[in-house]
Specification:
Structural class: mainly alpha
Shape: globular
Order of helices and strands: HHHHHHHHEEEEEEHHHHHHHHHHH
Number of strands: 6
Largest sheet: 2 strands, antiparallel
Oligomer: single chain
Number of helices: 19
CATH superfamily: Sodium/glucose cotransporter
Strand content: under 5%
Distance between the termini: 55 Å
CATH topology: Sodium/glucose cotransporter
Length: 521
């Protein structure tokens, strides 16, 4: 390792020590019971709720995946994905947050998403809870794996040890496991607050320095303006590839003539916004806020953070191509552009703190994914089958589940140095299609029935897998992002099955009306 690498490492280690200290601080309080451990006894303030929701949502994908897409193929896909995510963020806060906060408490004081579904439909056989918990375990394991890939890429760069990617994945997973095991939901949310702020300022710092060092609009336009369709949001650049690697001639990256970014592609990108309605790590923050009256303030904070962060991430990818035109010749490698810009712009010690923004993004998501997965296995599965289990036993099962999920995700991450963007898109679609339609129908349509809820959830989750692995291979219109058709089909199934089955009981309908008029502060 060079002196510069050591100084960068010092900056990152300082950040890691802070996060572990937060975990230790909240360890004793979080161990008081499962409601404290899994949902913080619904005591989150507006700033913590907003920043924790957004930081846990965006993950290392924001600082690596999205800039990588912009770097490699230009603004088309990255821009429309960002638009879809921004719209989805606003709609989720606007439509879902307050109603879910009310309903989760009215419906048996649910502390997890599967438990909310179960209580909402009075599912005495726990079918909904079990299916939802299994979906969470499967797709969150994939999600956590994507963040471990981020760890591997980051630490391999900092240690100047590209050949030790596997070791770096395991190292990052171990650090994350320690503080999540110790502190539970409160530790996760408080560190997310810190991480969200760090992500925000890291993005802004790299954006501003990149803009200045690349010569402003004139310099950037001169360097990338001639790349066909690179800056066209209705087009996409097409790197000239040979054996999976972009061709470089006379130190210039080679591109084809570019292509139109079709309406189908644009709808695919915008469909990312639909995923928000089904993201457990975001929805649980809505359920955990101290008072429903605080949601409006949280919404403003979250939407502003989201808009600026997404814009900065896309711009960094474009600026990165102008500054380092030939540095990365594959889509996977292009996801390192934030790393290299940071190292080039800042002194090593400061670069270490800025690069901690990537670590913050990954950790803020991974800890939430791991906690959600463990709560599903312990509170929603184990406690369902072992009703007499006490809270201490449930919490130990949760910690054991967290270890299992971590190991499984690490195995996925070690199976190949894949694209963070593509892995995240698959898991995002899974949650969005399985849970998103059901959340909306649960909160807005009193006539939704239990059989429809089960059918809709299964339809959404299964269709994502089938569309991704089979139907999309047909090409053409079938090549659309799997979230969109799966989401639509799930909605249709919920609506039709609800009309074909017996209306909900008077008790369920009474709870629905109570949710609409609830005044919980």
């Amino acid at each position: 390792m060079t002196v510069a690498n050591i100084q960068m490492l010092i900056g990152i280690v300082v950040y890691l020590l802070i996060t572990i200290a937060v975990g230790l601080w909240y360890a004793r309080k979080s161990n008081s019971g499962i409601e404290e451990y899994f949902i913080g006894k619904r005591g989150l303030g507006p700033w913590v709720t907003a920043m924790s929701a957004e930081a846990s949502d965006m993950s290392g994908w924001l600082l690596m995946g999205l800039p990588g897409i912009a770097y490699f193929t230009g603004s088309g896909e990255a821009f429309w994905t960002a638009v879809g995510l921004f719209a989805g963020t606003w709609l989720n806060w606007q439509l879902v947050a307050k109603r879910l906060r009310h309903y989760s408490q009215v419906a048996g004081n649910a502390i997890t998403l599967p438990e909310f579904f179960n209580n909402r439909f009075h599912d005495k056989k726990n079918i909904l809870k079990i299916i939802a918990a299994i979906i969470i375990l499967v797709f969150f394991s994939i999600y956590v794996a994507s963040q471990f890939i981020t760890f591997g890429k980051l630490f391999s760069y900092v240690f100047n040890a590209e050949n030790y990617y596997s070791v770096m994945v395991i190292f990052g997973a171990g650090i994350l496991l320690i503080y999540t095991l110790l502190g539970g939901f409160l530790a996760v949310c408080m560190t997310d607050l810190i991480q969200g702020i760090l992500m925000f300022f890291s993005l802004l710092a790299v954006l501003i320095f990149g803009f200045v060092f690349s010569g402003g609009f004139g310099g950037i336009g001169e360097r990338i303006g001639d790349i066909p369709r690179f800056l066209d949001v209705f087009g996409i650049a097409t790197p000239s590839m040979r054996e999976g690697v972009q061709v470089v001639v006379n130190r210039a990256p080679q591109f084809g003539v570019g292509a139109d970014y079709s309406r189908l592609n644009i709808f695919s990108c915008l469909a990312w916004g639909l995923g928000y309605f089904g993201m457990p790590q975001v929805l649980i923050r809505f359920m955990a806020i101290e008072k429903a009256s605080k949601i409006r303030q949280s919404k403003v904070i979250a939407v502003i953070w989201c808009f600026i962060s997404l814009f900065a991430a896309v711009a960094i990818g474009l600026i990165g191509r102008a500054y380092f035109p030939t540095l990365f010749t594959t889509a996977s490698d292009a996801e390192k552009i934030f790393l290299y810009l940071t190292a080039d712009f800042f002194p090593p010690l400061i670069a270490g703190f800025v690069l901690s923004g990537i670590l913050a993004a990954s950790m803020s998501s991974s800890d939430s994914y791991m906690l959600s997965a463990s709560s599903s296995l312990s509170n929603d599965l184990f406690k369902t089958f072992f009703k007499e289990a006490n809270e201490i036993t449930v919490m130990w099962v949760a910690r054991s589940a967290m270890l299992i999920v971590t190991i499984f995700a690490a195995i996925i991450a070690l199976s190949g140095n894949q694209s963070i963007f593509r892995i995240v898109s698959y898991a995002w679609a899974g949650f969005g299609a399985a849970f998103g339609p059901l959340i909306l129908f649960s909160l807005f349509w009193k006539r939704t029935t239990l059989p429809a809820a089960v059918a809709g959830m299964l339809t959404g989750g299964i269709m994502v897998i089938l569309w991704k692995n089979i139907i999309s291979k047909l090409g053409g219109s079938f090549g659309i992002y799997e979230l969109l058709p799966s989401f639509i089909l799930s909605c249709v199934v919920i609506f039709v099955v609800s009309l074909l089955t017996k209306a909900p009981s008077a008790e369920i309908q009474k709870e629905f009306e109570a949710m609409k008029t609830a005044d919980l502060g």
